[in-house]
């Protein structure tokens, strides 16, 4: 006998809020891209060009996130009985790939800059505009990361983390451009572009790695696993359950899938076993909003050890 939980009642509200944040990223991306492109046009700086190009990637990935979220919020159907939640991971993988492509393009432009260094035009105005764009990015990146974790959206978290690397890049770019302006060392401009490209490559690889973990059904973190075990043991401790074992977990977008076997005495009625499953499911969903719980009830001869233990 298996007991399965129902979706959380406020899932529609969460999806709507996540979608509004994704649309907000698109708007912020347009503003930041316009500012950084203006800074690049005013100065002709390769370092500022690399910063603007990273913002172009941000804009493209914001569009990808919106598309992914529209797919991820679709209800389960005959062909996708577990839902479409993993669409968010595909968005994050695409973001990582675009980041890597942008970094390679920057490296090529930086090589040309080393071959023929040139002085910058209107550097102070360009730096001021770039600084304003970086400030906007920092504020929005923090908002995305905080709300992405709150609503368990890997696409928003990935977007926020990438924006934060963009902020770090912008700070480094401004420092390098300022140093080149103060010293007259024109090679510092393409050198900063190279450093930005390396930083972008690193962040892109991390985004891809995290997304592939989700696509490969990686288990939840040790902290979440400890919470799940504690909740199961606490919820079942006052009832006739003999044991819980073969616990399996995985993430799919904002949803955590939890499966395990619950051993009951042979004389337990179906109604009593079902009531216990409901209580355990409710406790797990309270601890991990968005959880989908499947419990397989077994007779006592299926027990692996004595006591209320949970085996991974």
Automatic annotation (TrEMBL):
GO biological process: intracellular zinc ion homeostasis
Domain (Cation efflux protein cytoplasmic): residue spans on this chain: 227-300
Keywords: Cell membrane, Membrane, Transmembrane, Transmembrane helix, Transport
Domain Cation efflux protein transmembrane: 25-216
Protein origin, superkingdom: Bacteria
Pfam families with a match to the protein in the record: Cation_efflux, ZT_dimer
Membrane topology recorded in Swiss-Prot or TrEMBL: Multi-pass membrane protein
GO molecular function: cadmium ion transmembrane transporter activity; ferrous iron transmembrane transporter activity; zinc efflux antiporter activity
Primary location group: membrane
Location in the cell: Cell membrane
Record keyword Transmembrane present: yes
SUPFAM superfamilies given in the database record: Cation efflux protein cytoplasmic domain-like, Cation efflux protein transmembrane domain-like
Record-annotated membrane-spanning stretches: 21-42, 48-69, 89-107, 127-146, 167-187
PANTHER family recorded: MITOCHONDRIAL METAL TRANSPORTER 1-RELATED
Family the entry assigns: Belongs to the cation diffusion facilitator (CDF) transporter (TC 2.A.4) family.
Protein name as catalogued: Protein p34
Organism: Roseovarius mucosus
């Amino acid at each position: 006998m298996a007991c399965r939980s129902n979706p959380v009642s406020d899932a529609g509200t969460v999806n709507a809020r996540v979608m509004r944040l994704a649309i907000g990223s698109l708007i912020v991306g347009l503003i930041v891209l316009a500012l950084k492109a203006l800074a690049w046009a005013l100065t002709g700086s390769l370092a500022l060009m690399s910063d603007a190009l990273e913002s172009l990637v941000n804009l493209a990935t914001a569009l990808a996130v919106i598309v992914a979220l529209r797919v991820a919020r679709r209800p389960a159907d005959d062909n996708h009985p577990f839902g479409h939640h993993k669409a968010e991971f595909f968005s994050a993988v695409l973001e990582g790939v675009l980041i890597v492509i942008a970094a390679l393009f920057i490296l090529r432009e930086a090589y040309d800059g080393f071959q023929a260094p040139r002085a910058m035009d209107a550097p102070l105005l360009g730096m001021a505009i770039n600084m304003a764009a970086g400030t906007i990015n920092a504020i929005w990146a923090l908002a995305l990361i905080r709300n992405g974790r709150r609503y368990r959206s890997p696409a928003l978290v990935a977007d926020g983390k990438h924006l934060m690397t963009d902020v770090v890049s912008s700070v480094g770019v401004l420092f390098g451009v300022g140093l080149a302006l103060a010293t007259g060392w024109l090679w510092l401009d393409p050198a900063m572009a190279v450093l930005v490209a390396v930083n972008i490559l690193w962040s892109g690889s991390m985004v891809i790695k995290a997304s592939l973990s989700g696509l490969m059904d990686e288990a939840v973190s040790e902290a979440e696993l400890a919470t799940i075990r504690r909740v199961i043991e606490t919820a079942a401790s006052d009832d006739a359950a003999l044991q819980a074992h073969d616990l399996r977990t995985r993430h799919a977008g904002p949803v955590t899938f939890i499966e395990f076997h619950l051993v009951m005495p042979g004389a337990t009625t179906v109604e009593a076993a079902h009531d216990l499953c409901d209580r355990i499911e409710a406790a797990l969903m309270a601890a991990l909003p968005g959880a989908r719980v499947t419990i397989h009830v077994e007779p006592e001869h299926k027990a692996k050890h004595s006591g209320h233990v949970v085996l991974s």
